[in-house]
Amino acid sequence: MIWIEFAVLVGMILVGSQMKGIGLGVMGMVGLFIFLFLFKMKPTDPPLDVMLIIMAIVTTAATLQASGGLDYLVSLAERIIRSNPSNITFIAPFTVYFLCLFAGTAHIVYSLLPIISEVSAKKRIRPERPLSISVIASHLALTGSPMSAATAAIVVILGYPGALLDIMKICIPACIIGILIGCFSVFKKGAELNDDLIFIEKMKDTEFAKSMEAEVEGEVKPLKPGAKISVLIFTFAIVLIVIAGAFPKLVPSFEPGVKTLAVAANGSLSMVTIISVITLTASAAMMLITKTSTADVTKASLFTSMASAVVSVFGVVWMSSTFMNSNEVLIQKGLGGIVADYPWTFAIAVFIMGVLMFSQAATTKTMMPLGIVLGLPPSALIAIFPAVNSDFVLPGYPTLLAAINFDRTGSTRIGKYVINHSFNVPGVVAIVVTIATGFLLGSFLL
């Protein structure tokens, strides 16, 4: 019976991922409907914690965007990328990584992709190289950023004081090393641009050739008056979250009692409460101090993407957790021994689920509780955490498609067999190295 139920689970995820947008959420509910009324499974609690975290964090990031803070950060990143175009294959991905690590969202990379493409093309560096690893870097930044929903989700799942600090001190250096090796994996990828047949054909177009010979100049965009202030407020919010996670005794506590969404059983505030209160307070401060209207925030592209993320997590995670909970004994019996002897094998399962779900937060919320059931220690779960970034394998994620579209030379592409696209080699290399480094760091830091 478990295999039939598993087939339903995977089938709903596959159909939902093809539908894009809220597809995962609505198809997750279809799967949950089948589990409840056909297989008589007992439903778990809906993933309200992750949904609230996504709403709070994305609202704050959208406020930063509406107040001009993201534009200011992008201008700084653009300046760094243009400063040394000859080494763009290394400079661009690390600039992207730290920017996304700070902002807690990979979607900010859209503003940098055309810059990376143009700068590399005009220096006759194959754009596929910096573009591919930069997209991977934008994803890896979410596993370690205190402002990302995925990191917040695993902090809640691990549930011990100082979990956020442990995640940051393992995942951030591990991801940096993984990205570095990923850069080397694409350093000589493909033919040199001047030898690329597609580029040679494009250069026959006079207008295209003229644009490729133009000087590399950055367009100076006027910033909103409150841009820098909003970045300072956002930074202060990040610092407060890290301090609250690292030093739980500084956070108000109450009498022990029944565990709720807001307060843990020992009376301490949950990370859901801490993150939500701090981020939305920061959002309010940005709006009041920079005079950013609430209408501008709700019109921001990050805010409009929030509904899709929340619905997707709501449906697919609730379906998946119900399946996992109903089959917990069988899963533990079948995988417990293997995972106990070889903890890294759980990373393969997380990686595969990430490919299907197209969401780091949803994959985290679905798979990490299973890792705890299978007996994996926190150090192993933190090391495996970056495996949730496997949404690049099937080339349907928006950041991948944007990179392909922004590369006017045609070097960044999807291959004949679909999965042989520009992002798989740097993605797999970076994630494997990151996980291996995470296990190594965890062995003596935790």
From TrEMBL:
A Pfam family recorded for this sequence: DcuA_DcuB
Coiled coil: none
Record bears the keyword Chaperone: no
Transmembrane feature ranges: 6-38, 50-70, 90-113, 133-161, 167-187, 229-247, 267-288, 300-319, 339-358, 370-388, 425-445
Compartments (UniProt record): Cell inner membrane
Alphabetically ordered keywords of this record: Cell inner membrane, Cell membrane, Membrane, Transmembrane, Transmembrane helix, Transport
Keyword Cell membrane listed: yes
UniProt cross-references to InterPro entries, sorted A to Z: Anaer_Dcu_memb_transpt
Membrane topology per record: Multi-pass membrane protein
Family: Belongs to the DcuA/DcuB transporter (TC 2.A.13.1) family.
Protein name in UniProt: Anaerobic C4-dicarboxylate transporter
Source organism of this protein record: Flavobacterium taihuense
